[in-house]
């Protein structure tokens, strides 16, 4: 453990000379340190305290924070389908191991689902439906409010989509209610995924709820899916085991201008207006007797710009989003502190040549530009946020001002391909020997013509090599040599993504710049960068012709003149040239890649033949291809390339595997992308027979589909159906088929005259339908599928791509490639026909790894159709079962309800136990006076059964049943059902019929005994029941009169 991480650091910082009006940088209650309008002159030294990032040893028995509660809310909606596995893997690796304390995990799509008290996600957690972000935020808010723990971490992972809410509430309604409860410390870690996630939601959630470390980044953003792992790793680095708050004996400012604080988190900065000499000795409350480890140091530009100011910006933005006071004059103090520190660095450089000072001087320009950009972005966010109509621009601004970017693959690339100064020195010695051996031949080469040189600097690689002072350049440092030596070639605009540094064969070239800048050099790009001429510092690109986007370039792919290729070959194959080619193409001076030049030439070649087919190719394109070919052929004599080419021609199955299962010349070979075999076969086309060309075309197409298809079908439930039976999969088609086969299917279900007679409840009907017709679909769909209906979906095939495994290759590129190597058109059409493509697709779906595909013989077309037919039957059987079951259930349910309502529209008439027993026995029900109350649940007040139907026309009349309430549900669901009709009729039996009907429409007696109170019916709804209500009243009235007579007789 670094002891420096456990020490307190006190830095002295000075303001710029001259009067500095600090304005509103304090509150009146803070005394006279920052009173409004106060102008301070003279001494301008202030103090910055950096709290250690780890708890110091002398405070190890410090009473740390209470138990931690982790709330994890992950978006599992349909738009997260391809991203979910990436989230799972990164979460398990980086975050889950750091989650101490209690953890409760949730997943949400159209509803929020609790995943329980665990720390890991699984594939089963994925939902895949619509997105209810409002409900997710509400769940978080309620969990925070009811939590017993004082320290809470909130993790939110979402692409920000919101397209469903049962209560029609927008997310803003929940966000504005969010705030940290008193006494609770909350850290918010919100990962936004994709270019379209709503940045404002993300910032507002964090701003309202977060009150933990001030220097936690405002935003974690995975712009692309490939960034998800990196961003989750960065989140994990912000997690400490226990949030620890220290109380100091002196108050300072987390941000100048806000309230003073004495409580501070590990890793934060604290600002004091006084100089270090004016401050009392630093102590932690409760540990006054402990001597703290304190280092006194001078602040650096890097610490100001990359640490302190980022913390201040995060808090200022948080205040702004909360609509709280934002001390914008803090920006003036930031500028004054930066300028004061910059001036001190310059003064020190005149008096001392220490390493630290020299390093700071070297970075003066860098941090001056970085500080200016940071200030501009911060002012924009704080003063003109409404102008950020594009949320992505707002996010970009936030990232630049509050988060230090971290390269996902940086460490991995350096481990694999790192190339430092020591390597350069040995490479220079080797190059010197090679050059001296070839010097005479180099000097005899024709001097390059102007059109062969860089159009900006009028020089080229060969011109430099023919310069008599070339060897003097080898005495320069590595970076001076890289900026000075000319690497001339094609200017290209490409996506130099992180993964291109690992696998250069996957480079995506957007365009190659044409005349008048057909040839330039990497030195020219460096010149543009130094002078900031139309230079984009982020993607390291320049626009060579102002206003012409097609002249934009960010890399140079070196080209060697054909007449110099043989002489220069030893130099081109040297480590020094490989280092320069790596820098010229990948713009990375720290690594070396011996494959990068050949790979870049291959990617440029494919881009060129794609945009300029053989049939209509202008002269300058032919010259470009000649240059690419001549330069690339230099590398075909390299042993590793020669081994791969021989394997590609003699054993193509092994050569097309991502990693061969056999060794060649003692080594396994790799096919990093399909650009590699396509380009090398083009270079060696003279060695191929017509039959070999035809076979290679088929094998390349099959491998392309094999590598791309899994990416598009991994989450498909019915891949064969979508690829071969598009019409069968159509939802309307299935519904039409369901209507057509309705009667056939119903025969499997219905065995009585009416559905009502067979099924007591709707639920019984639905269950029976699902059970009885489950196994009928396979046979019913068999005749629906014939070979005419089974045809590969060529539109889907044309859209296939997988840059990571195939490179920037499209399905249409294989036709262009085949024409390029001389395959006749009839063979091309045959190899790419739908029937042949079907073979490739089936092989890809059944063998998802190249080592399995390439190790098996090609399938016969008859076998392929048999497999397709069988797979589609299986998939459509399941798919049809779901759709048809829903359609059949809907139709059958309507029929059952119609039968039910036609019989149950009458009012159930009261019956005495004797009447019930007599009628029940006639139906064969085993009931008598002795077991009546065991068989029936009887309400003697209104003379109704509570477990049997009393509608005489019902097939289930007086049949006792445990699901009697479900039997009644149909009519009770109707809005016009007269609830409590019998109770009201009984109570008001002395009144007339209209009086009783009035009480029913008032809802009298509805909802008694803690039952649900339903909306009463309208008068016109119960008008048809007037006669039956009259009979009901008469019945209850007679019963009461009889009861009174019996009571009178007893008296």
UniProtKB/TrEMBL annotation:
* Residue segments, region Disordered: 17-41, 1001-1023
The Gene Ontology CC terms held by the record are: protein-containing complex
By its UniProt entry, which InterPro entries does this protein fall under?
A: vWFA_dom_sf
What's the name of the protein? VWFA domain-containing protein
Species annotation: Halocaridina rubra (Hawaiian red shrimp)
Q: What is the lineage of its organism?
A: Eukaryota, Metazoa, Ecdysozoa, Arthropoda, Crustacea
